[in-house]
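Tutorial handout. Part one gives the primary structure; part two gives the three-dimensional structure as tokens.
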Amino acid sequence: MSQLSNACLIAGLAIAGGASAQSPGDQDPYAWLEDVQGARAMDWVKARNAKAEAEIAGTPAFKSLEADIRAILDSDAKIPGVEKIGDHYYNFWKDKQHERGIWRRTTLAEYRKPDPKWETVLDLDALNAAEGAKWVWHGADCLRPKYQRCLIALSPGGSDADVTREFDLATRQFVKDGFSRPEAKGGLAWIDEDTVYVFTDFGEGTLTSSGYPNIVKEWRRGTPMSAAKIVYEGKPGDMYIAASRDHTPGHQRDFVSRTIAFWNDELYLRKADGSLAKVEAPNSAQKGVHKDWLLLELRDPYEAGGKTYAPGSLIATRFDDFMAGKRDFSVLFAPDEKSSLAGYTWTKDHLVLNVMEDVKNRLSVLTPGKDGWARSAFVGAPSIGSVGVGAVDADDSNAVWLTATDFLTPTTLSIAEIGKQPEVLKSNPVFFDGSKHVMEQHFATSKDGTKVPYFLVRPKDLAFDGKAPTLLYGYGGFTVSMTPTYSGGIGKGWLEKGGVYALANIRGGGEYGPRWHQAALKANRHKAYEDFAAIADDLVARKITSPRHLGTMGGSNGGLLMGNMLTQYPEKFGAIVVQVPLLDMKRYSKLLAGASWMAEYGDPDTADWDFIRTFSPYHLFDPNKDYPPTFFATSTKDDRVHPAHARKMMAMMEAAGKDVRYYENIEGGHGGAANNAQAAHMNALAYTFLWQQLTKDGAASEPGDADPPKRERRPRGAISGSRL
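Part two.
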């Protein structure tokens, strides 16, 4: 981790001593902490970082833990996830020797070997040294069918804002006078070798209120970006405007996307003359076009062709027929009370469905033909835990990547031809002895009677005396599903020392499809928090733990969850870690990307504030109440969720004399860390703090971990790589 400069303790103490212990009203006494890089704010940050380091990181046990986590993150034995680009298989890799990472490639024949030979394509550490920069990899888009030119996105320090630069795979050099987009939120997308779509900050009035592009243009090589031709301009209040070309051979099409808000978007087909034809599907539906087919993943009921299709369904029709006005759909998946669609992937001739039944993955294969869609079982589908599937090459192959994992089983990677048994290619190392532990699924009963699942990992010989240090992790928003994943850090640093780990599947997530998510939107947000509190109670009722030994942790929307556990249910927890959080829900829509989340939380500048204030931790804080020991962690470079949320909450609690500490990483963006060293340090701080607080009556040495599992979208043809 980049070490922060010494704290300005005098300024920090003056701020703490001079601030009144009160909840914010119209005049927010801590508004000055919203100045991200301001000298006064950064002095305050450095002072609190130094204090947290002194309290938590000053022991040999912490150093040992940090080293253990770093070794896990840097392990050369981890699965190198790959993406097929042309004839090669590309991987982005970080380890001890490559702090910022290398983009490298190999062949499938080499990749099958235990120790493949890799060819370095781009070394970010060497690039940073040459340019005096701190670039963080944001990915590459390589132009088919030659796969020679790529658009590489690089972030300064890990922020969402990044630059795009054209790169030549043959010379392994950035192209002199090639396409280059200055730092902003947005991107470039290939049209052909000499033309790209550009959506970025073009100057005043060209960004949405969320800070994302509101204009997309067509930009030709050899001309200045200022001369690019407008393709589409969004309307006031829109969230994100972009465009892309589908380069699938024989099915090349151009699309413009207008994202109005989360789960509210429009898709347009751009014709050869530049005119746009709207794809007249519901705004709330997720739209996917592949070769001949249009697939709609429904969030709301949809009436079409004299039929009504249920929310959570996946339906399909021929794209050209749909654009001509026909509405004849086939139902590929329909949910029930226990199932939801986790995802799907196309191969050359098939569609593979990934369905969750009570948060357990099941795969099946659909094959379109002249008589409709034939359905068959996925041969050799993994039967354990969490299963991921992605096409190797959707244009030319029926092969897929398969990943399988659970809390106690290291992740395996297989390659499988549809209809044949999978071939295991790689497996992550065994970082702890899982034979001493057991994984269970339980259901807690929420306040309104809803059964809420959660996973539990515990020692087989657990005493059930209510004394086990237990960590409950949750998220509960934006349709994100929390599923079992193997973590060497959790196993080595928490479970082996006698700790218990629980993962919540509360409403607001996607575990049971749209209904599960929509049940906790806006005025119903409290249901997610009631679910989480019910799981905490269930852990106590089962005598697994007790409030003084129960800790909890979450980040981003999960940080808002933690803030509400802190302010609404403080008696249920012995320690709380709040990471990159939303907390000031009166101001959230005016800070960075906050306006883009009003579909989830509501608009605090309207009557919505009447219910938003009931889950705004910054406004629920009561200086006269007792709160459990708390640790806030965020990043200066987080340009998605403003660090002021954590800063202001920390300042208010500190002024009230509460048991609270704070750490802000200078780099890292919303992920919190820009490299493995920073990730190890941040996580060692959090887990050391939790173990110290939850085992005060005597327990083992401090544990640690890398971040708990998070589901994320994967690029076409890719599998998860060196990320956790």
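Part three, for discussion. The chain has a mean pLDDT of 91. The chain has 15 helices and 39 strands.
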